[in-house]
């Protein structure tokens, strides 16, 4: 007899979640100070936690925050993060990751209504990027018909009738 109990998703420690989030920071922020500024701009953790993780003591962090060069980097990256929506997307991604076990529980709980279970399954498929994609050439095409009628000896018609 086979066990039909579904596999539960792995529960990640806060450090593992943070490490996954750090891996998703855009690679364009390559220098140590740019990555530090990006993490500060995202405001996903307190500045103290960010500086500590990067190996800065409190005095070093204060000195860096008073440095005109670092302030310029931080302001530039904070503007980029705000204007591109990166902060919102990263926070939404973190929330989605935290809620994944809840969605799994709802989707596999037979006491939950079928519509809620279906929504949880659809959401999981969407965030896993498993939804079918519409090909570029299919977008906006609805079959359609273009008909041009020209009689011998006449100029091209001024009006084209398109159906679709």
Q: Give me the Rg, rounded.
A: 27 Å
What percent strand? Answer: under 5%
Which structural class fits the helix and strand makeup? mainly alpha
Major beta sheet, strand line-up: 1-2
Distance between the first and last residues' Cα: 57 Å
Q: What key phrases describe this protein's structure?
A:
about 160 residues, mainly alpha, two-stranded antiparallel sheet, about 55% helix, flat
Task: Give your account of this protein's structure.
The protein is mainly alpha-helical. Among the domains are: 14-84, no CATH class; 92-127, no CATH class. It has seven helices and two strands, in the order H-H-H-H-H-H-H-E-E. It has helices at residues 14-23, 32-42, 47-53, 58-65, 68-84, 86-108, 114-127, and strands at residues 145-147, 161-163. It has a two-stranded antiparallel ribbon. Helix 2 (32-42) crosses helix 5 (68-84) and helix 6 packs across helix 7. The longest helix is centred in the middle third of the chain and has 23 residues, at 86-108. The N and C termini lie far apart (57 Å). The mean pLDDT is 77.
């Amino acid at each position: 007899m086979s066990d039909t109990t579904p596999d539960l998703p792995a529960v990640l420690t806060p450090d593992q979640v943070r490490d996954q989030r750090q891996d998703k920071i855009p690679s364009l922020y390559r220098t140590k100070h740019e990555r530090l500024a990006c993490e500060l701009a995202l405001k996903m953790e307190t500045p103290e936690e960010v500086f500590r993780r990067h190996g800065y003591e409190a005095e070093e962090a204060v000195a860096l925050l008073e440095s005109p060069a670092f302030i310029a980097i931080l302001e530039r990256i904070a503007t980029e993060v705000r204007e591109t929506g990166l902060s919102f997307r990263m926070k939404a991604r973190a929330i989605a990751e935290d809620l994944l076990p809840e969605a799994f529980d709802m989707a596999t709980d037979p006491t939950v209504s079928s519509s809620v279970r279906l929504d949880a399954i659809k959401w999981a498929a969407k965030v896993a990027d498993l939804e079918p994609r519409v090909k570029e050439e299919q977008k906006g095409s609805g079959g359609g018909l273009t008909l041009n009628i020209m009689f011998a000896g006449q100029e091209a018609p001024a009006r084209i009738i398109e159906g679709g």
